[in-house]
Amino acid sequence: MKLYDTKTAPTPRRVRIFMAEKGIQCEIEQVDIVAGDNLSNAMRAKNPLGKIPILELDDGTCISESTAICTYLEAQYPEPPLMGTTPLAKANIMQWQQRAELYLFNQVGMCFQHTTGVFKDRMTPVPEYGREAGINAAKFMHMLDKHLAENTYLGGESYSIADITAFCAIEFARVVKLRVQPDQVHLSRWLDAMRARPSSQA
Q1: What are the distances in angstroms from CA 171 to CA 88, 165, 176, 179, 198?
Q2: Is 122 within a domain?
Q3: 42/130 same-domain check
Q4: What would the pLDDT profile of 123-171 be if each residue is shown by its tens digit?
């Protein structure tokens, strides 16, 4: 299988970290999204939305959307489990995965797109919306700090896809000058632990 990737983007990084945690190796092809290479006819044939990452299987089947790719990989390579093993664990991890996705990862992404104008050739930036998204992301980081006061990881005591999503969001947030605050000691502890994992270099 082959992963279509963009090394500098946070969304495909989630898949790379997920694969690294499971020890999965495959061919990786870099796609320049700033230059718009992801919008070519060839890439749209693999994903009509023209988004990266894309996982192309050996039979030519293409899976896009990072969570969908990770769901496939979890089923194919169940060890170590990153999406829970019991019904309750799976639900709890998905709960925090969704929260991290909606209230942090997406907000950071909107802040980046709408305040920097990097993709103004293919969208209309709304700076006010971008700034508000950044505020929303900062608020959620405060919520995470409180949650992590009583939990080792987002989903409890086991590292999971929810941690990967939050980690990639917080790492990328530095681009828009959004950082963990000094008083967020529990979030800082968690972030240090995430950076110490070998998969963080993926």
Answers
A1: 29, 10, 10, 8, 15
A2: yes
A3: no
A4: 999 999 999 999 999 999 999 999 999 999 999 999 999 999 999 999 9
156, 89 contact by CB (below 8 A): yes
List the structure tokens of 83.
């999406």
Please indicate, yes or no, if residue 47 is contained in any of the structural domains: yes
| Confidence category of residue 8, pLDDT binned at 50, 70, 90 | very high
- Residue 132 makes CB contacts below 8 A (sequence gap 6+) with none
Mean of the pLDDT values across residues 54-79?
A: 98
CB 137 within 8 A of CB 177: no
Q: Which residue range forms the structural domain that includes residue 30?
A: 2-76
Pairwise CA distance, residues 38 & 52, whole Å:
7
Same domain, 71 and 92: no
- Return the CATH number at 49: 3.40.30.10
Q: Any bridge partners for residue 143, and if so which? A: none
